[in-house]
Design goal:
The protein is of the alpha/beta class. Helix content is 44%, strand content 17%. The chain has 6 domains: 106 residues, Archaeosine Trna-guanine Transglycosylase, Chain: A, domain 4; 88 residues, no CATH class; 55 residues, no CATH class; 162 residues, 3-Layer(aba) Sandwich (Rossmann fold), CATH 3.40.50.300; 84 residues, Helicase, Ruva Protein, domain 3 (Orthogonal Bundle); 176 residues, Ribosomal Protein S5, domain 2 (2-Layer Sandwich), CATH 3.30.230. A hairpin with a 5-residue loop joins strand 21 and strand 22. Helix 3 packs antiparallel against helix 4, helix 5 crosses helix 7 and helix 22 packs parallel to helix 23. Belongs to the peptidase S16 family.
C-alpha cells in the first residue's frame, strides 16, 4: 500500500468515526435528544424545520424512499464515498434520495433522475469493507430546480413544494379512515410489519393525511414505477386516491398468502399427528406383544411363501439354516441384506409346482397348422415327439434342436410347441454369450451376484416344467470368463440335469421336467459333445408355393392388422404376390418377403392419403411403382461346352452353382482356378482334374487333349466365398464336356463328392439342393447313391415332377450326362 493510499484510508476512517461520534452525541442525555426532565426523545422523528437549498443526490434502484420512512440503506463505498463524505461535512447531514429504476451505475447520468425525490437525514454512518451503511430518516419531498454538478457527487438546487391538502374535507377524511382501516386489516394478516405498524398507527390520525398516505404507500410491495408515481403526486387527495388501491391489493395478497400458509400448516399438522399416532401404535403393539420388527416380517414372509410348495429336503434344510441366521443378524448389517436376497430367491422358486401337459395330438396338429404353413415333415416330427410323450407320461428332459436358415420360423415353432403342450414358454438368446455365470450363476461372494438364466426362468414362469428356448446356440462365444457351451452340457444332458447346481443358490435343482428347444443356423460351430445331447430337426428353406401360402395366410394379414388397414383398402393380387416372391425375396426364409410386403403397405398408405382414393390395387403391372426394379431376374441355366450346373448348400439355404471350364491356349499344359474357392473346394478341383486326365480315353475323349491345353476352371459369383467337397462331380463333368467338345443341352444339375478312383460319395443338404433346383426350374438332378434314403424321405410335393439319377461311380454320372 502506498503512502497516499494509507493516508486516504485513514482519512476515510476519520470522517466515518466522526460521524459515529456525532450520532452518539445525539444519544447523550446532555444533547437535544433528551428533554430537561431526562425523558428520551426519539431522534428519528421528523424535527427539522430548516432544510438546505443545495443537497447532494443519491440514486436508489429498488423502490422510492418516502418522507414517512425510516430505514437503513446500504450503498457502494467506492462509488458514493466522496458523496457521503461531503454530506457528513454539512451541518444539516441531509441528502436527497431519488429513484432511478433499473439504470446501471455506468450508464446513469443526470437525465435518469426524476424531478421529485425525498430529502433524508443521515444517521449512524458506518463503513464496512466495500459498503457504507446508514439510517435514512425521510423528511420531505424536494423538487430539482437546477443541476450544479452533473457528475458524482451530484449536487442540485432544490425547492420543497407544498402538498395541497384540506384535512377537514369529508372526502379526504373518508380516504384517510379507509387507509387507516386497511393498515389495521393488514396488521393481523402479515406479522412482518407488526411492530412498525403499531408504532406508526399511534402517531397518525385522519387529520394528518399526507404522512399517513406516504406511510401506507411505503409498506406495500408495489413496483417501483407505481410508487414513484405516488411520490411525484403532490396533492394529497389525488395521492390518496392512488394509494388506496395499492393497499387493497396488498391486503388481498397477504390474505392469499395467509390462506396458503394455513393450508400448509394444516397438512403438516395432519402428517405430524399421523406420525405420532403411528409411533404410539407401534409402542402399544410392542407392549402387547402383537407387533413385529422388519426382521420378523421378513422371516414370516419367507415362511408363508413355502406353505404351498413342495420343497425337497436338502433345500428345506438350507432354507431353515439361512432363516436361523437371518433371525440373529442386525438389519443394518451388510450380511443381513445378502442373506435376505438369497432367501428371497430360494423361496420365490416354484418348488414342486408343475403344469398339466396337453398330450392331445389333434390339438397339437391344429396349433401347428394354424401358426405355420408348409414344414410338413417338421410338424410330423413334433407330433411323433408328443406321441412318444403320451406313452411315457411326459415329454420332459428332451432337448430339441431346430436347425435351419434365418427366417424359416424356428423361434415361432418353439412357441407353438409350448402352446400345443399347454406349458409356459421362456426364451433367452445365448448368441454372443461369453460368461458361463449367465448359465450357472455367480457365487455369492461377489458383489451384485445373481443366479443364472435358468433360475431366473424358473422364477418368472412359476412352474418346474416350462418350455425353455435357447436361441442362436450356434453363436456361443468364449472368453477368459469361461466357456458357456461347456456349462450348457450339464443343463442339456438328461443324465446330469436332474441335479443341476447353480453357483448362487448352491442347492441341487431338477431340470429334467423342462423341455429345451434350441435353435441354430448351422451345426459347424456347435461343439460335438453339446450337439450329441440334442435331437436335431432340420427346417429347410421354403419353395415359392409355400411362401405364397405363408404370405397370404400370415404375413399380409398381420401387416394390414398392425397398420389398421383392411384388405378392401389395399388389394394385392396373387400374381403380384408371386412376382414379389420371385423377383424380390428368393431367400430360404420369409423375412425379406415380409419386408417387401411392408414396403407395399407403406407406399399404399401414402397413396390412400394423398390421392384420396378408397382402394389401392397392386398388380404385376404397377408393382415396380411400389418396390422398384426387381432384385432378381429369371435365372438362365448356362449352356455350352464345359458348362455344368451344380447344387450347393449354404447357411441361407440351397443354391445352384454353375461351373465353367475353358481352354485358354495350347502352348503348354496348365490348370488355373478362380471364384474365391476354399481349401476343400480347391482340393476337389484338383481331384477332378487328375481323374479326368487319367480317364479321357475311357469316356471317348482325345487322350492327348490336356497334354498341350492350359485349362481355366471358374465358379461364377467370384465375390462369394465357396467351399465344400460336393462340387467334385460337377467339376469333373465340366472338364470332360470341354475335352469331348460336347455341351449339355438340357436343364440338368448334379451334386456329389468324387474320389481319385471315381467313387461318388454322399453329401449333405439334399432337401435344400432339391428346393434350389426346383426354384431354377431344373427338374432333372444327379445325386449320390448313398443319398437315396435322404431323397426318399422328402415330402411328396418336393419330389413331384422330379427325375433323379443316383450314382455310385462317376461312370454312372457320365452315362446320364453324355448318354
Amino acid at each position: 500500500m502506498s503512502d497516499q493510499d494509507y493516508d486516504r484510508e485513514h482519512e476515510h476512517q476519520d470522517w466515518l468515526t466522526e460521524s459515529e461520534s456525532h450520532d452518539s452525541q445525539e444519544d447523550n442525555p446532555k444533547s437535544n435528544g433528551y428533554r430537561s426532565d431526562g425523558e428520551r426523545v426519539n431522534s428519528l422523528l421528523p424535527a427539522s424545520e430548516m432544510l438546505p437549498e443545495r443537497i447532494y443526490l443519491l440514486p436508489i434502484h429498488n423502490r422510492p424512499f418516502f418522507p414517512a420512512q425510516v430505514q437503513p440503506l446500504v450503498i457502494n463505498r467506492e462509488r458514493w464515498e466522496e458523496t457521503m463524505r461531503r454530506v457528513n461535512n454539512t451541518p444539516h447531514h441531509t441528502i436527497g434520495v431519488a429513484f432511478v429504476g433499473e439504470h446501471g451505475v455506468e450508464s446513469l447520468d443526470h437525465e435518469g433522475f426524476p424531478e421529485i425525490g425525498t430529502a433524508v437525514k443521515v444517521h449512524k454512518l458506518k463503513g464496512e469493507d466495500q459498503q457504507i451503511q446508514f439510517i435514512a430518516q425521510g423528511l420531505q419531498r424536494f423538487k430539482i430546480q437546477r443541476w450544479l454538478s452533473k457528475e458524482p457527487p451530484y449536487l442540485v438546487e432544490v425547492t420543497y413544494p407544498k402538498e395541497p391538502v384540506n384535512a377537514e374535507d369529508e372526502e379526504t377524511r373518508a380516504y384517510a379512515m379507509a387507509i387507516i382501516n386497511g393498515i389495521k386489516e393488514l396488521l393481523p394478516i402479515n406479522p412482518l410489519y407488526g411492530e412498525e405498524l403499531k408504532h406508526y398507527l399511534n402517531r397518525f390520525s385522519p387529520h394528518q393525511p399526507g404522512p399517513l398516505t406516504d406511510f401506507a404507500a411505503a409498506i406495500t410491495s408495489a413496483k417501483g414505477p407505481e410508487l414513484q408515481d405516488v411520490l411525484a403526486t403532490l396533492p394529497v387527495a389525488e395521492r390518496m386516491h392512488k394509494v388506496l388501491p395499492l393497499l387493497r391489493k396488498e391486503i388481498d395478497v397477504a390474505q392469499l398468502q395467509s390462506e396458503i400458509s394455513e393450508q400448509v400448516n394444516a397438512q403438516m399438522q395432519e402428517r405430524q399427528r399421523e406420525f405420532f399416532l403411528r409411533e404410539q401404535l407401534k409402542v402399544i403393539q410392542r407392549e402387547l406383544g402383537i407387533s413385529k420388527d422388519d426382521r420378523e416380517n421378513d422371516v414370516d414372509t419367507f415362511r408363508n411363501r413355502l406353505e404351498s410348495l413342495v420343497v425337497p429336503e436338502r433345500v428345506q434344510a438350507r432354507i431353515d439354516e439361512e432363516l436361523n441366521k437371518l433371525s440373529v443378524l442386525e438389519t443394518g448389517s451388510p450380511e443381513y441384506g445378502t442373506t435376505r436376497n438369497y432367501l428371497d430367491w430360494l423361496t420365490s422358486l416354484p418348488w414342486g409346482v408343475t403344469s398339466q401337459d396337453k398330450l392331445d395330438l389333434a390339438h397339437a396338429r391344429e396349433v401347428l397348422d394354424r401358426d405355420h404353413d408348409g414344414l410338413k415333415d417338421v410338424k410330423e416330427r413334433i407330433v411323433e415327439f408328443l406321441a412318444e410323450g403320451t406313452f411315457k407320461g411326459d415329454v420332459g428332459g428332451s432337448i430339441v434342436l431346430l436347425v435351419g436358415p434365418p427366417g424359416v420360423g424356428k423361434t415361432s415353432i418353439g412357441r407353438s410347441i409350448a402352446e400345443a403342450l399347454g406349458r409356459k414358454f421362456y426364451r433367452f438368446s445365448v448368441g454372443g454369450m461369453r460368461d458361463e455365470a449367465e448359465i450357472k450363476g455367480h457365487r455369492r461372494t461377489y458383489v451384485g451376484a445373481m443366479p443364472g438364466k435358468l433360475v431366473q426362468a424358473f422364477k418368472e414362469v412359476e412352474v418346474e416344467n416350462p418350455v425353455i428356448m435357447l436361441d442362436e446356440i450356434d453363436k456361443l462365444g468364449q472368453s477368459f470368463q469361461g466357456d458357456p457351451a461347456s456349462a450348457l452340457l450339464e443343463v442339456l444332458d438328461p443324465e446330469q440335469n436332474v441335479d443341476f447346481l447353480d453357483h448362487y443358490l448352491d442347492v441341487r435343482m431338477d431340470l429334467s421336467k423342462m423341455l429345451f428347444v434350441c435353435t441354430a443356423n448351422t451345426l459347424d460351430s456347435i461343439p460335438g459333445p453339446l450337439l450329441d445331447r440334442m435331437e436335431q430337426i432340420r427346417l429347410s428353406g421354403y419353395i415359392a408355393e409355400e411362401k405364397l401360402q405363408i404370405a397370404k395366410h400370415h404375413l399380409w394379414p398381420k401387416l394390414l392388422k398392425r397398420d389398421n388397414l383392411s384388405k378392401r383398402r389395399i388389394n394385392l393380387s396373387d400374381a403380384a404376390l408371386k412376382q414379389v416372391i420371385d423377383g424380390y425375396a428368393r431367400e430360404a426364409g420369409v423375412r425379406q418377403l415380409e419386408k417387401q410386403l411392408h414396403r407395399i403397405v407403406r407406399k399404399a398408405a401414402v397413396k390412400l392419403l394423398e390421392e384420396d382414393v378408397e382402394t389401392v390395387k397392386v398388380s404385376v403391372k404397377n408393382l415396380e411403382e411400389f418396390l422398384g426394379a426387381p432384385l432378381f431376374r429369371k435365372e438362365k441355366v448356362l449352356k455350352g461346352e464345359g458348362v455344368v450346373t451344380g447344387l450347393a448348400w449354404t447357411s441361407m439355404g440351397g443354391a445352384t452353382l454353375p461351373i465353367e471350364a475353358g481352354k485358354v491356349h495350347s502352348l503348354d499344359r496348365g490348370f488355373k482356378l478362380t471364384g474365391k474357392l476354399g481349401d476343400v473346394m480347391k482340393e476337389s478341383a484338383n481331384i477332378a482334374y487328375s481323374y479326368t486326365l487319367g480317364h479321357l480315353a475311357e469316356y471317348g475323349a482325345d487322350a492327348d487333349f490336356f497334354d498341350s491345353a492350359f485349362v481355366h476352371l471358374h465358379v461364377p459369383e467370384g465375390a462369394t466365398p465357396k467351399d465344400g467337397p460336393s462340387a467334385g462331380v460337377t467339376m469333373t463333368t465340366a472338364l470332360l464336356s470341354l475335352a469331348k467338345h460336347q455341351a449339355i443341352t438340357r436343364p440338368l444339375a448334379m451334386t456329389g463328392e468324387l474320389t481319385l478312383t471315381g467313387q461318388v460319395l454322399p453329401v449333405g443338404g439334399i432337401r435344400e439342393k432339391v428346393i434350389a433346383a426346383r426354384r431354377s426350374d431344373i427338374f432333372e438332378v444327379i445325386l449320390p447313391e448313398a443319398n437315396r434314403r435322404d431323397y426318399e424321405e422328402l415330402p411328396e410335393y418336393l419330389k413331384e415332377g422330379m427325375t433323379v439319377h443316383f450314382a455310385n461311380r462317376y461312370r454312372d454320372v457320365a452315362n446320364v450326362v453324355f448318354k
